[in-house]
Amino acid sequence: MSPITHLLSGWALAVSAPVERRDRAIITLACVVPDIDAFGLPFEFFTRNSPHPLTWWSDYHHVLGHNLGFALFVAFLAWSFAKRRVLTAALAFVSFNLHLLEDLAGARGPDGYQWPIPFLLPFSSRWQWIWSGQWALNSVPNLILTAALIGFALYVAWSKGHSPIELISKRADDAFVAVLRRRFPCPTEP
After folding, report:
1. Among positive and negative, which fits the CA dihedral 59, 109, 133, 65?
2. How far apart, in whole angstroms, are the C-alpha atoms of residue 65 and residue 70?
3. Euclidean distance between CA atoms 85 and 26, whole angstroms
4. pLDDT, tens digit (0-9, with 9 covering 90-100), for 31-89
5. Distance between CA atoms of 94 and 16, rounded to whole angstroms?
6. Any residues with CB less than 8 A from the CB of 129 and at least 6 apart, and which?
């Protein structure tokens, strides 16, 4: 799945809970942070034609950040920085694992390679998640999911008054919601 899809799905989970903006941001970021292990992509890209190419992305993506150990670390960080500590940490853990499930369902590469997810690392390397039905990263199901999440975000912005833009700027979020509500006014009550 794309980082946008991960961000939107994490935010969708976050707005389902009675938490404030800061805790929503923590829960949302927990759904994006597993891809921190893609740090090696530019190094691999720029050294691919060198005598000693670096394979940091090929070797470490879906390994370092896509496992139970890192999920527990992220949950601990969420607990450390949240206002509603237990709820936010629990939802950050769920959000993190939502990312893994999304990757399991729809992250097959253009060459057909399916990224296995070594879920029990660093405790054990025995069990890896892989699904033979995994669809391609640029497939229709991924596009439909992203479109549905955008629709959900627009609905929440219209009905509750906050959108994923709140992760960047409260002021910009307020302006976006105001424009959305002017364009699509809330129905008046009888």
Report:
1. positive
2. 6
3. 11
4. 999 999 888 889 889 998 999 999 888 888 888 899 999 999 999 999 999 999 999 99
5. 13
6. 100, 104, 116, 117, 118, 119
In the three-class reduction of DSSP (H, G, I as helix; E, B as strand; rest coil), residue 118 is classed as coil
**3 state DSSP class of 117:** strand
CA distance 6 to 146: 9
Q: Is residue 101 classed exposed, middle or buried when 0-12, 13-18 and 19+ CB atoms within 10 A define those classes?
A: middle
The percent helix, strand, coil of the chain (3-state, each to 5) is: 60, 0, 35
Spacing of C-alpha 189 from chain mean position: 37
Backbone angles phi, psi at 83, to 5 degrees: -80, -50
Q: What is the pLDDT of residues 9-40, one digit of tens each?
A: 999 999 999 999 999 999 999 999 999 988 88
Torsion of CA 38, 106, 157, 160, to 10 degrees: -100
Q: What gap in Å lies between CA 154 and CA 182, rounded to an integer?
A: 13
Confidence of residue 138 (pLDDT cuts 50, 70, 90): confident
> Cα separation of 74 and 12, whole Å?
18
Put residue 151 in one of left, alpha, beta given phi > 0 → left and psi -120 to 50 → alpha. Answer: alpha
